[in-house]
Design a protein that fits this description.
Helix content: 40-55%
Number of strands: 18
Radius of gyration: 28 Å
Oligomer: single chain
Shape: globular
Length: 732
């Protein structure tokens, strides 16, 4: 009954919850999105002109309506009406509605800060990049589409309603902003409960899908200066409801139920190297959740509403007073702790423990991992630290020495950090394998860290990791189980089925569908009728999940890969072609389609798609790499060399490109150059076994036995379980 409860609107809530309603009114949630009117539009539309590279845009009004003349989807200057204002501080964006139901967000935004702060001006969100009309980041492009990118978190009861047949959106919402029911769930049953006095005792949940009540007392221990929560936090409910929007994640299921775990419908990002520094500090725009999961605050039971008023969204106290509610001021808010002049900016707790980074040019956001500054880790990992972010005239050595001087007896600023294992895993260090296994198995570490370590184990599969993977697939933490699935995916069929089959009935949908995807190529090998039934049910969920985002080329490419794994060739081809039709710049679909033709011995057809991909995006190395492999199969070695060289030039960070290029060079009679390229690859990923084997082979063939022995020793060190490596070293 409750799952079918309808949305009634925030005004219905106000009749009983007037105080909360008034607190919420004019909050950033209330103002998350508004119809464009003279009252809601903060930007200047008085014939304002803004120049961005070779495009001159003009902002103007007509009869209380707002317009912009700027470059449209064809690159030509065109007038567009502004229909919605998006956000309020420190910037406001503007939406244009197109005939196909697509709401597109302008790349030009209004800086709502005061003039003194540098605001009250138009600016471009990509000021240093020349974003032209054919770029996915252009305001009319697929990556600036409100319906997919923004709508769920800026509206209430959002229904995307994308129609694949005619390629239009018919998006609806209950309220245009983030209203009461966005967090508390649909209110119809609650209103009914409130109106029927005699039935109130019969309902423990008051007619709501979720009860948000995390009130607690924080009692400070005067000896340690730190607080403990009473009662202890029993669930992550409140945090995960906030995380639905305040995290870097993808929506995989559009039937969200308040109170269900986040991973039933959404997939949160882990500490990927494109998003976070190796020590977990924020790098790209990741919002808050992934950082907060790493914090001691989270581990000790802190929830979002301990610091933030859930209705006004304001902090519950100003400055250090807020931190002082859990951290004894006489111990921490003193020069003996912070070692800076009183009343200076550096005495703010957030200056050291929540360093900020600007996103969207001017939006400074604090890192919610609440970490201790570790300039020593900056020296090891290349991650930033709060000290030299402020003291820009000093270096990391200076900062590390200062902290050592201030806290000589404290080990906290120099103890081993999980970032060291993640850094080793990212760069393929010789000791990475065991470091990653130890970190993934360490239940005292944050789940998001362990999940990241588990993901990195994909590059270090060997007999020693098999036991670890099995344990991780049964871990209590959902993120860890999820990450272990893709790590186990490349194992032999019988082993993979044995390890993964229990996850086909996991309580969380994201885990079930990821398991089904990983087992897609094994269905015909499954003899157990019940297991096959579970697999089929999970596969159907996976297909439904991809169709939730059917307006995206990635979704169709994912389905293409699924069908290819299941040997459903026609369906795979159709999905890849749909991805290309949807976004001609989406290169993975071209490459996957070419590979589909390769599997059918139709490289001539595949080549056509690879050449088309290179024509569309000559700057994408993966297309050149795939074309090089095709030339190798056609025994056109010179053409292959040119393609591999281009792939290395465009994507030097990919070690595999260098390895394959080196093998091709050696085959072409250029062993010296091949060894040079392999040495570069080895420096990039010292534990790459393919590179090491190739170095041993090429150096031995060149008569450099000393060099061959050197790399053979490293090979044995990297893979002590590999009897072939040991035999190779013995022969040398």
């Amino acid at each position: 009954m409750l799952a079918e409860s309808k949305y009634v609107g925030s005004k219905a809530c106000a009749s009983c919850h007037l105080e909360q309603y008034q607190l919420w009114k004019n909050s950033h949630h209330d103002l998350a999105m508004q119809t464009a009117t003279p009252e809601t539009v903060l930007g200047s539309f008085e014939n304002q002109i803004f120049k961005y590279f070779d495009v001159t845009s003009t902002f103007f009004k007509k009869d209380e309506r707002f317009f912009v003349k700027t470059d449209g989807p064809d690159g030509k200057l065109t007038e567009f009406e502004i229909k919605y204002a998006f956000g309020v501080y420190p910037l406001q964006q503007y939406l244009v509605v197109f005939a196909n139901g697509r709401y597109q967000s302008l790349g030009l935004a209004w800086d709502t800060r005061s003039k003194k702060q540098g605001g009250q001006r138009w600016f471009h969100l990509y000021p240093s990049e020349h974003v032209t009309h054919d770029n996915p980041l252009h305001w009319t492009g697929i990556d600036q589409n409100w319906n997919y990118m923004c709508a769920e978190c800026h509206s209430t009861n959002l229904k995307k309603n994308f129609n694949q047949e005619n390629n239009i959106f018919q998006t609806t919402w209950s309220e245009i902003n983030v209203a009461c029911e966005a967090c508390h769930g649909p209110g119809e049953e609650h209103v009914t409960w409130a109106q029927q006095e005699k039935d109130k005792q019969k309902s423990t949940n008051k007619g709501l899908q979720v009860i948000l009540n995390n009130s607690a007392n924080w009692i400070i221990n005067t000896d340690t200066g730190l607080a403990s929560r009473s009662p202890t936090r029993k669930s992550h409910l409140e945090i995960e409801i906030c995380a639905r929007c305040h995290t870097r994640r993808s929506m995989q299921w559009d039937k969200y139920t308040h109170g269900r775990p986040l991973m039933d419908t959404h997939l949160p990002a882990t500490l990927d190297d494109s998003l976070y520094y190796a020590d977990g500090q924020i790098d790209d725009e990741v919002y808050v959740y992934g950082s907060f999961l790493q914090s001691k605050m989270f581990q000790k039971g802190v929830t979002c509403s301990d610091c933030h008023d859930p209705h006004t969204l304001h902090l519950k106290a100003e400055g250090n007073q807020l931190c002082g509610s859990c951290h004894l001021a006489t111990k921490f808010n003193t020069p003996k702790h912070h070692f800076h002049a009183e009343e200076s900016e550096a005495t703010k707790c957030t200056s050291c423990h929540m360093p900020k980074k600007n996103y969207m040019v001017i939006d400074a956001r604090g890192d919610h991992s609440f970490r201790i500054p570790r300039p020593d880790l900056s020296l090891k990992l290349g991650a930033p630290n709060a000290c030299t972010q402020c003291h820009q005239d000093q270096n990391d050595e200076w900062a590390a020495a200062a902290i050592e001087k201030w806290y000589p007896a404290s080990p906290r600023h120099k103890k081993n950090h999980y970032g060291e294992a993640l850094h080793a895993g990212r760069r393929g260090s010789v000791d990475a394998n065991q470091l990653l296994i130890d970190l993934a198995n360490d239940a005292s570490k944050p789940a998001i860290v362990r999940a990241t370590s588990t993901s990195l184990l994909q590059g270090y599969l060997n007999p020693n990791t098999l036991t670890a993977i099995n344990d991780l697939l049964h871990d209590d933490e959902a993120l860890v189980r999820f990450s272990a699935i893709s790590t186990a995916e490349v194992l032999p069929t019988e082993v993979k089925v044995k390890l993964l089959k229990h996850l086909l009935i996991d309580d969380l949908r994201m885990i079930r569908i990821e398991t089904a995807r990983a087992l897609a190529d094994t269905r015909e090998n499954i003899s157990d009728t019940n297991l096959k039934l579970m697999f089929d049910q999970a596969i159907e969920e996976y297909i439904t999940a991809q169709n939730v985002n059917a307006e995206r080329p990635e979704a169709h490419a994912n389905l293409g890969t699924l069908y290819a794994s299941m040997q459903k060739i026609d369906q795979a081809q159709s999905e890849y072609e749909q991805a290309i039709a949807m976004d001609p710049n989406f290169i993975p679909a071209y490459i996957n389609l070419a590979d589909l033709y390769r599997a059918q011995n139709l490289d001539s057809e595949g080549k056509r798609y690879l050449l088309a991909a290179i024509e569309k995006r000559p700057d994408v190395g993966s297309a050149h790499y795939a074309l090089g492999l095709l030339f190798v199969r056609q025994k056109k070695l010179n053409d292959a060399l040119s393609s591999f060289q281009k792939a290395v030039e465009l994507e030097p960070q990919i070690t595999r490109n260098k390895y394959v290029y080196a093998v091709a060079l050696d085959s072409a009679g250029q062993p010296k150059k091949a060894i040079e390229v392999l040495n570069l690859a080895h420096k990039q990923r010292p534990a790459d076994r393919d590179v090491l084997y190739a170095l041993v082979s090429f150096l031995q063939k060149a008569g450099n036995i000393k060099g061959a022995k050197h790399y053979a020793n490293i090979l044995v060190q990297v893979s002590p379980w590999d009897q072939n490596a040991k035999a190779l070293l013995e022969r040398l």
